[in-house]
Structures are given as structure tokens and as C-alpha cells.
Design a protein that fits this description.
Two copies of one chain form a homodimer.
Chain A: H1 4-17, H2 26-33, H3 37-49, E1 53-56, E2 62-65, H4 74-82, H5 110-127, H6 131-136, H7 139-150
Antiparallel strand pairs in A: 1-2
The first copy, chain A, binds a DNA duplex (39 and 39 nucleotides) through helix 3.
Chain lengths: 154, 154
DNA sequence: GAAGGGATACTCGGATACGCTATGTCCGAGTCGGACAGG
DNA sequence: CCTGTCCGACTCGGACATAGCGTATCCGAGTATCCCTTC
């Protein structure tokens, strides 16, 4: 899993806390977490395309949450950044080679089913937590975030 | 997730069905699924190091299950092939940059907790299924496997 | 016929290419704010 | 003084390099089995 996921989640939580401050520029977000500015921008653009964030261009522009934090799940962020494909992809190797000769395979691949079930459990957990839950889990960070943001230059 | 996981699981199921035939050589296993022989060997060596398979050298050698199929979970195979590291690794970016100034962070990172919980759910599902379960899920393949294996040359 | 030595086939471990994706960087299009000229 | 226009700074967006890892291959070393020679 790419590190952009951690970046995206932290940015979403921060944007949730700063939603009254208007759009936050990529320059400030990169300085906020000491991340490479251009690459972080690329990842947030993916979140924008997925409808998780909304961006406004121009000198006073920046990124902000496209929806209320209660309506953005961790799964939304992960899917937007990692793609919708499953981690395990069944290539149906059972149907190739000598071992497959004379077989019908009317049943679906049991291995594929098992892996899919595990991945569904993973997705269910991620879909059950929202950005709002993460925000509520660190109330003291909300105040510090707003305080430090107000002191940022430019 | 690497495709070696699918290979390893199918090989374990096949070795479970052929456990009365003695060790199965890597040449037969590669031909069985039409896989690159050398690379498949490399993956099965990883399973051997992890104690899932046992290998015997020599002209009549090959690979076989190191334990009864009921005692080999899908999680064992995945861990042996993908490594024990978690997919999501928290880099604690919240403690870097401008946003961290003046913070104690006595609580652990909520994002890390959420991701870990999801990954535990995934691991629990995989640890709940064994090679024996996969074997039982496709009984008609067992007979075909033994039949086709008996007809294999060399 | 039994014992010893060589040949064979197989596994193991490491060293070496190749390709794809994640990572990182760049430039162009668009937008806002202010300066400036004209009325 | 007010207004309209132009310029510059800043932003997003997408296109263009680079690096690291998964994939794939090859080679030498070790070992057990088999065969063949020899006593």
C-alpha cells in the first residue's frame, strides 16, 4: 500500500478541522506535514477526481472537503488513491497446464472465494469509519491545528 | 499482492491431494499449472523456509506438505510469501512539519489504529481457512488431479 | 553376487537481467488581486 | 476620485523522468539414487 494513503487521510482530517478557513493551498499542506509538495498535489488531485475533495484554482484557491466529514469513509480515500482493483487477483491458473485437462470447473475457484471474503472483511472495516470519526478521536489536535494554521505565513 | 500467492495456494492444495505419491518435483508442478519453473521454485523455497513445505533433494526428491493440511492456514502461506510486514505502515507524518509544533501526541495515531483493525480482520479471515478446507471445497478436482498425475511422464 | 566409484537428476542458494508501478519533477492553463492609466 | 484594463503572482492540472521492487532467468554447489565396473 502506497504511503499516499496516510498522506490523504491526514490531509482530509486536517481539512475537516479547517473547513471554516476556506480552501487550503497545497503549499501549506505540504509544509504542514513536511511532505514533497508536487507529489502530494498529485495525490490530492486523485482525491479531487474521485469527488472526495474539491479544488478551487486561483491565487486564493486550494483544497477543501467536497462533502461533510461524516459522509467520507476511510474506504473512499483508499479506493481513490489505490484504485478499485482488489489486492488479490485470481489468474485462474487451475485452468492452465496439464492439471486442467479433462476438467469442467463448474465451481468457482475456492481460493479466489476465500481471498475475496477476507478482502471484503477488510473493506467493511474501512467503510465503517469516517473522517468525522478520526476527527473525534483526537479532539486536542483540532485546537492545535487551528491555532498553528492561523500563525502560518502567506 | 504478488501472484506467487495464488501459485503457492494451488500448489499446497495439489500437494495435499498427492501426499500419498511422495514428493512432487518442481518440474511437474510447473508443468501442472503452466508456470515459469525457476520462479515457481523460488517461491516454493520461501514456503519451505517458513516450514509450510518440506523439500527432499535427490533424484526422487521434490516438495511435499510439511504438516497435515488441517494445520496449514491460508494466512501461513500468505505470510510466508508476502512477508510479515503490514500493508499499511504508519510513518507518523503528524509529528513532522509545522502542524506538529507544540504537540505531545500522547494518543496513538487514530489513522494507524483504524488501518490496523481492518488488517486484523483480513488476517483473521485468512487464518480461519486451511488448506484442508480448500481441498474439501473441490472434491471432484481431487480425483482428476490424481488421475492426471499418474499419467504424467517422467 | 557384493562392494565401490562414477554418472545422473534433482534441490538449494545466490547472482544477475528485465518490467512495471510508485515515486518524484516539470511546464502550461487558468484565476485572482492589485497596480496603473484614462476619464 | 472613479473605472476599466493590464500585468504579475499564485494556483491547479496533466505530461514527463526516475527509482525501487516484483518478476524472471541463469549458474554453481551439494546430495541422494541409479548404473556400471571391478573384485
Amino acid at each position: 500500500m502506497g504511503e499516499g494513503v496516510e498522506w490523504g487521510l491526514h490531509c482530509c482530517v486536517t481539512l475537516g478541522w479547517l473547513k471554516d478557513e476556506g480552501p487550503v493551498s497545497i503549499r501549506k499542506l505540504a509544509a504542514w506535514f513536511d511532505l514533497p509538495q508536487e507529489y502530494l498535489k498529485k495525490r490530492l488531485q486523485a482525491l479531487t477526481r474521485a469527488g472526495v475533495l474539491s479544488s478551487v484554482p486561483g491565487v486564493k484557491g486550494g483544497f477543501s472537503l467536497a462533502r461533510p466529514p461524516e459522509q467520507i469513509t476511510i474506504m473512499d480515500v483508499v479506493t481513490a488513491l489505490e484504485g478499485p482493483a482488489e489486492a488479490f487477483r485470481c489468474e485462474e491458473i487451475r485452468q492452465r497446464g496439464v492439471g486442467a485437462e479433462g476438467g469442467r470447473f463448474r465451481r468457482p475457484c475456492g481460493i479466489s472465494i476465500a481471498m475475496r471474503r477476507a478482502e471484503l472483511a477488510w473493506r467493511r472495516e474501512l467503510a465503517g469509519q469516517t473522517i468525522a470519526d478520526l476527527m473525534a478521536g483526537a479532539p486536542e489536535s483540532a485546537a492545535r491545528t487551528r491555532r498553528n494554521y492561523a500563525r502560518m505565513p502567506g
